[in-house]
Design goal:
The chain is mainly α. Helices cover 82% and strands 0% of the residues. The chain is built from eight helices and no strands. Helix 1 runs antiparallel to helix 3 and helix 3 runs antiparallel to helix 4. The longest helix is centred in the first third of the chain and has 39 residues, at 2-40.
Amino acid sequence: MNALVATLQLLVAAALLSIPLVRARYGAAATAAAAAELAGQGVRPGLLAENGMRFDAGGHETWAPVSIAAALAAGAALNLLGVSWAPVTTWVLLTLVLLINCLILHSNLTAVSSVRAAFARKGDEELARVDVPALLKAAEAAFPAWVWVLQNARHVVAFGASIAALVVGVLA
């Protein structure tokens, strides 16, 4: 059972690592597409960077999934080594993964309203003029079509493998 739990943890870790890998490869193109969309709207393209909006692998888009994946790999090693407190670590890590993945999914589903709200909080007239759906659509179009499939598969793996590992841990 420990090997199965460890395998599931490593599967979740790999799914999480897909986030910074895709953003590292295609984020610059998405940023350029967003800048072009802003220019077409008569908005300074540098406005996004000035306000911390990015489409690349910088910031939390890298450190968060890499850190979580590293913690999951360490948890998998504890399970494979049969360390007595590995099940507790597994419960803590995978519960956090489930909660964080819920936040990621919510963020994906509410991106337009979230970005609009963030722009509104800034009180900047230029940000208020941004057509947010068009901006996000332009950035999204710069990523290959298969990224949408990968994103959905990542959610299925993160939820499914985490739940499966937790259930297997209870049954062990």
